[in-house]
């Protein structure tokens, strides 16, 4: 299979990037040192190419009603200019993808699915738009994934760096942009959609731009300040794991459900304040799963955090043990560059999911001690207002 390339592929090659297949895309894994890239985001600013992500515009008088039906969240309740994390599930409650939706106008949304799922989400949107409640929805769907680039600037210095690239009259709009919100600004002389929804556990921004102008924007940000470091998927994975953010294909998938993944609040079911009226795909199955888990967690699994007591890291699919019996499986794991000890996410039987529980992970035949801990592993310090 021929891998797809982003509009920035040549820029990454010039920087000496090592590439890897991710969701059918030839993406930069790292440039020099993934450890240095990780620390750059925690201490300064890291620049990521996320152009493999999908972008689907949903427009029309029933755009909000359609997304309420197609996704598990209450998308009609979010204000223009805001964003919402949600899931698209199948009728059985399995997770097709996790995604972010930006409301750009009363009847206009931008939905951003994961790279490997973009085509599947778009195809499912087309089906649900045509066959939904009362025969379909009056919406227009536009998959612009292959025409759109996405650049992320992440880290404590991200705002300062970005402010140097926008006109003075737009500086306040950047400073005042809240978490999970988006606005249109000019950066490096180019029109962009600017969002603040990061995946690294740090402050930061996502910049959506047409492919034809992506290289100009990338180089302007990269050369804006010495603290800006190009970062690949390896450091993005270690950063998101420290922040305990789930990855589709690891923590999320068709075989699981939102409640065991700790994403129950994302599902708009009673008695939540965000509960929505009307039907949505997976509603019946998800309501049943929620009720069963409320009644008893016996025999059910829970996504937990694990802290290693030694130096060896757990990896995806490693068995988790208690008294020699398997009680679960690791979904993601590595040595935490920020914290200095191994961390992992794992699905465990609910009986062993309480923080403080001692377990072992089978690291290729040797049982190593780990402790169940509260999530996230890392949480950035918010600077006090002057």
TrEMBL record:
| Annotated GO biological process | glycine decarboxylation via glycine cleavage system; methylation
Kindly provide the name given to this protein in its UniProt entry.
Answer: Aminomethyltransferase
Query: One GO molecular function term?
Result: transaminase activity
Q: Which InterPro entries match?
A: GcvT (IPR006223), GcvT/YgfZ/DmdA (IPR028896), GcvT/YgfZ_C (IPR029043), GcvT_bac (IPR022903), GcvT_C (IPR013977), GCVT_N (IPR006222), TrmE/GcvT-like (IPR027266)
Query: Carries keyword Transferase?
Result: yes
Q: Which family does it belong to?
A: Belongs to the GcvT family.
What is the gene name?
gcvT
For this protein, what reaction is catalysed? N(6)-[(R)-S(8)-aminomethyldihydrolipoyl]-L-lysyl-[protein] + (6S)-5,6,7,8-tetrahydrofolate = N(6)-[(R)-dihydrolipoyl]-L-lysyl-[protein] + (6R)-5,10-methylene-5,6,7,8-tetrahydrofolate + NH4(+)
UniProt source species? Psychromicrobium silvestre
Q: Which NCBIfam families match?
A: gcvT, PRK00389.1
- Enzyme class comes to transferase
């Amino acid at each position: 299979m021929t891998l797809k390339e982003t509009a920035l592929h040549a820029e990454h090659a010039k920087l000496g990037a090592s590439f890897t297949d991710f969701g059918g895309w030839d993406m930069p894994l790292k440039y020099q040192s993934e450890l240095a890239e990780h620390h750059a985001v925690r201490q300064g600013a890291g620049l990521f190419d996320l152009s493999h992500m999908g972008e689907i515009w949903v427009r029309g008088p029933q755009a909000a009603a359609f997304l309420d039906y197609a996704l598990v969240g209450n998308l009609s309740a979010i204000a223009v200019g805001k964003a919402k994390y949600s899931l698209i599930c199948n009728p059985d409650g399995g997770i097709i993808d996790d995604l972010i939706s930006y409301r750009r106008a009363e009847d206009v949304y931008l939905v951003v699915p994961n790279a490997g799922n973009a085509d599947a989400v778009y195809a499912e949107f087309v089906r649900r738009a045509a066959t939904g409640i009362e025969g379909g929805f009056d919406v227009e769907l536009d998959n612009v994934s292959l025409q759109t680039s996405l650049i992320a600037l992440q880290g404590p210095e991200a705002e300062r760096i970005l402010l140097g690239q926008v006109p003075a009259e737009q500086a306040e709009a950047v400073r005042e942009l809240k978490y999970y919100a988006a606005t249109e600004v000019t950066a490096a002389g180019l029109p962009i959609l600017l969002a603040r929804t990061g995946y690294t556990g740090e402050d930061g921004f996502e910049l959506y731009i047409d492919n034809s102008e992506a290289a100009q924007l990338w180089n302007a940000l990269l050369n804006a300040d010495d603290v800006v470091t190009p970062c690949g998927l390896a450091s993005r994975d270690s950063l998101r794991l420290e922040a305990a953010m789930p990855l589709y294909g690891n923590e999320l998938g068709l075989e699981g459900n939102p409640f065991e993944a700790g994403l129950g609040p994302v599902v708009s079911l009673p008695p939540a304040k965000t509960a929505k009226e009307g039907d949505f795909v997976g509603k019946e199955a998800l309501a049943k799963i929620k009720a069963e888990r409320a009644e008893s967690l016996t025999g059910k699994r829970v996504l937990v955090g694990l802290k290693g007591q030694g130096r060896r890291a757990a990896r995806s699919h490693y068995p988790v043990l208690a008294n020699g019996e398997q009680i679960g499986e690791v979904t993601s794991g590595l040595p935490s560059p920020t914290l200095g000890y191994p961390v992992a996410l794992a699905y465990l039987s609910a009986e062993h999911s309480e923080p403080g529980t001692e377990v072992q992970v089978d690291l290729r035949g040797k049982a190593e001690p780990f402790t169940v801990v509260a999530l996230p592993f890392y949480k950035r310090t918010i600077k006090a207002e002057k």
